[in-house]
Amino acid sequence: VTVTPTTTAVGDAFVTSYAITAGTTTAFGGQIGLTTPTGSALVSVTTSDRATTDALVNAVVSTVTTSGDSATPASADCLAVSSARAGLSFAVPAGYDAQDPAVLAQLDESQLPPELTDLAATQGMTAKEMLTRTAKQSDLLIVGPLANGVTTNLNVIATSVSALPSASGSRRTTASIIASAAGSPPVSTKSPS
Asked: Which residues contact 5 (CB under 8 A, 6 or more apart)?
């Protein structure tokens, strides 16, 4: 697994964009760091192509609220999602499914949405295994369509740390979270040239 991250500031947030290559499959992601009333939060986005990742990152950044108010969907084509623990809300495309991974991890495998089974399969594990790992660090799991072997997904990770990490710290954190979620050995992190 190779992760190639870059970090840029977007208003009061930072966005770390990355490409993940595992075998012949490449996924694209973005991690949005935000300061919230409860500390800070990371919203991690993974899709099969850079354009979709960028669109989802922009949707989150442009609709996020950290005041405890619900995000107002930009149109009827959007779903407002909230993370109480992280203290934020934002909008995602309609048709996505938002769930608490800790609640899902307690369900029988046959009760889980098929999108979660697809997502877990792309990571080489069962849905229960993936949810157990995800529940340890994520407050909210949002699953979208499967495309080119990658299930579109967003994760909200709440922290009690009030300061966001530096750009290099964000790149290391991103690589660590990806390796942990995928259950893979340590990843190599390449800075773009």
From this structure: 16, 17, 18, 170, 171, 174, 175, 189, 191
Contacts of 92 (CB under 8 A, 6+ apart): 56, 59, 60, 78, 79, 81, 98, 142, 144, 154
Dmax (CA) for the chain in angstroms is 46
CB of 14 closer than 8 Å to CB of 23: no
Q: How far apart are CA 54 and CA 30, in angstroms?
A: 8
Contacts of 2 (CB under 8 A, 6+ apart): 20, 21, 187, 188, 190
* Euclidean distance between CA atoms 84 and 151, whole angstroms: 25
- Global pTM exceeds 0.85: no
DSSP 103-130: HHHTS-GGGS-HHHHHHHHHTTS-HHHH
Tell me the CA distances in angstroms from 45 to 69, 110, 111, one per residue in order.
Answer: 22, 26, 25
Composition of the chain by helix, strand, coil, percent to 5: 30, 40, 30
Positions in the chain short of pLDDT 70: 1-14, 22, 67-75, 160-193
Query: Are β-strands 188-189 and 2-10 bridged in parallel, bridged antiparallel, or unpaired?
Result: parallel
